[in-house]
Amino acid sequence: MAPPIKIPFSKPPRLFCDQVKVLESHGIIIPDPAKAEFYLSQINYYRLSAYCLPFEESHASHQVKPGTSFDDVLNLYIFDRELRLLLMDAIERIEVSLRTQMAYHLSHRHSSSHPHLDPRLFKNINKYQTGISNLKKEVDKSNEDFIKHLKIKYQEQLPPIWAVVELMTMGQLSKWFSNIKTRQDRRAITHIYGIDETLMTSFCEHLSLVRNIAAHHARLWNRDITKKMRLPTHGPSELRSSIWVLPDADRRLRKLYNTFSMVLYLMNVIAPEHHWKVHLKDLIKKHDIDSSRMGFPVDWESRPLWI
Predict the structure, then answer these.
(1) What are the two backbone dihedrals, phi and then psi, of residue 122, each rounded to the nearest 5 degrees?
(2) CA 182/CA 232 separation, integer angstroms
(3) How far apart (Å, rounded) are the C-alpha atoms in residues 139 and 154?
(4) How much is the pTM?
């Protein structure tokens, strides 16, 4: 099949005031054009237009449903921004906790300050070598005083594990954890969370992708997440009863509900005083959000984790 014939891009750049007129031409009610122009001068039109999509009656013409206002679109945009911040707060806590558990248990189980320098503890030697190489790069470019001190004083090629884990990104942490050879080591690390190590491995890989989306300020609220997480088949009943189990082909499995349920479960272990559930519920209510767009089941608030 021949590739499609490409044509030159002919759309000209528009002034902010003209961008307002384009939105009005799509049927969006703008009672205060100056306000809309101000927001468009701070939020790229192309970025904001993605939040118009749920209000469209026709994507071909971009005409929105009658009664749709600029404030409706802006409200959805603000909700998504606040949702990313709330999720990033939880991911930070999960990441820091997992770093702590991995450093603690690997060092104590193998009576070593540098278990990460022992390739025998890891399954895939190529992944291990890539991980070591990436860690060396992180150490070399680090401006942290504790890293500089350890590099100058000690002869090992990398600092001890309790120091280097602080330089690992969520993606690197996920790869190191999944590459640990023995199930006993992985189980020791995840024991505090009360879940199986295979579930934690899958969730870390999934959460790494979600974190990257949020960290790059990309639209999150109704996004399809390409890498699905493994769903729990045993373990804590409140988690299993709260996860939404659907056929693999069901697109709702790619939405955020199960991700949020797993995050909430871990937050209840790691930071129960944070009341993450309350913050998310309040955020959805404050902005009057249709939670089904995020893959939430109708009865989500009556499921054990969310009560």
Answers:
(1) -125, 150
(2) 21
(3) 14
(4) 0.91
What digits encode the pLDDT tens for the residues 126-137?
999 999 999 999
Q: What's the CA gap between 265 and 242, in Å, rounded?
A: 10
Q: Inter-axis angle of helices 33-42 and 70-109, to 10 degrees? A: 30
Please name which of 215, 216, 220, 258 lies closest in space to residue 239, comparing C-alpha atoms: 258
Average pLDDT score over residue span 76-105: 97
Radius of gyration of the chain (CA): 23
194, two tokens: 């009360």
For 69, 164, 176, 186, 257, the CA distances from 237, given in Å and listed in that order, are: 43, 35, 29, 22, 17
Exposed/middle/buried for 33, CB within 10 Å: 0-12, 13-18, 19+? middle
Q: How far apart are alpha carbons 282 and 83 in whole angstroms? A: 11
Decide: 277 and 264 in contact? Cβ < 8 Å. Answer: yes
The amino acid at residue 152 is I
For residue 62, what pLDDT is reported?
93
Question: 203-223, pLDDT tens digit by residue?
Answer: 999 999 999 999 999 999 999
- pLDDT tens sequence across 51-80: 999 999 988 899 999 999 999 999 999 999
Give the distance from CA 158 to its chain's centroid. Answer: 29
Q: What does each C-alpha distance from 279 to 82, 116, 286, 302 come to in angstroms?
A: 10, 38, 10, 17
Are the CB atoms for 177 and 97 separated by under 8 Å?
A: no
